[in-house]
Inverse folding.
């Protein structure tokens, strides 16, 4: 157990639907990063939150949004889902002041049918 | 923009040594990291280089040359369990996101 918790582990949904992925960072970590990994692809950065505030955005679609709550857990909302959104979605947290070392959650595998 | 280049695939036999190179182009540089990912699993942190030189952690070593924008991960005494994808990643500034390379799939054969 890495200490970063992601739920659900698997999600199957139909095109056009909306889903919410949840992430709880390691205790004490203020930063949360969301990444998308399509089949046999690298990790594409989506968005970063630090202590409740958005810090950076990557190639995140307008259909996707995220937030980080006061208890530091984060949610990634994906709407109007398309077949191409099928992927592994990872969140990672990082300890403030440490120059390296994300700790990743186990990921949510999203399948859009 | 940022880019990291690494080979897509490497095959080697058990007991061999494999070197995975990574070249990067970024506007800033705050360290090169390496991650291992088994199929269907989460990436796990392997190694970090903030300064030039070699860092050794057991059978794995990582090297960085900032002047050449180049690093490598060295896997020694390969074992079957080392079959996985390996990603290099760069942080351009403190606290910022990591940008990952496309990954190198390492296949270890008996």
């Amino acid at each position: 157990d890495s200490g970063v918790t992601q739920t659900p582990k698997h999600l199957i949904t139909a095109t056009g639907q909306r889903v919410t992925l949840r992430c709880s960072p390691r205790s004490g970590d203020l930063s949360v990063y969301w990444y998308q990994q399509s089949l046999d692809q690298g990790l594409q950065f989506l968005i970063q939150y630090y202590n409740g505030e958005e810090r950076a955005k990557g190639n995140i679609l307008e259909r996707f949004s995220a937030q980080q709550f006061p208890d530091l857990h984060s949610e990634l909302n994906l709407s109007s889902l398309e077949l191409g959104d099928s992927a592994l979605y990872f969140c990672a947290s990082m300890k403030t002041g440490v120059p390296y070392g994300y700790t990743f959650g186990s990921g949510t595998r999203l399948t859009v049918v | 923009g940022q880019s990291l280049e690494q080979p897509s695939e490497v095959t080697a036999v058990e007991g061999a040594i494999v070197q995975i190179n990574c070249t990067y182009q970024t506007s800033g540089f705050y360290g090169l990291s390496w991650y291992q990912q088994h199929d269907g699993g989460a990436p796990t942190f392997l190694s970090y280089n903030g300064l030039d030189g070699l860092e050794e952690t057991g059978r794995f070593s990582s090297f960085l040359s900032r002047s050449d924008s180049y690093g490598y991960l060295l896997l020694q005494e390969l074992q079957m369990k080392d079959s996985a994808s390996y990603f290099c990643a760069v942080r351009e500034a403190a606290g910022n996101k990591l940008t990952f390379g496309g990954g190198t799939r390492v296949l270890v054969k008996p």
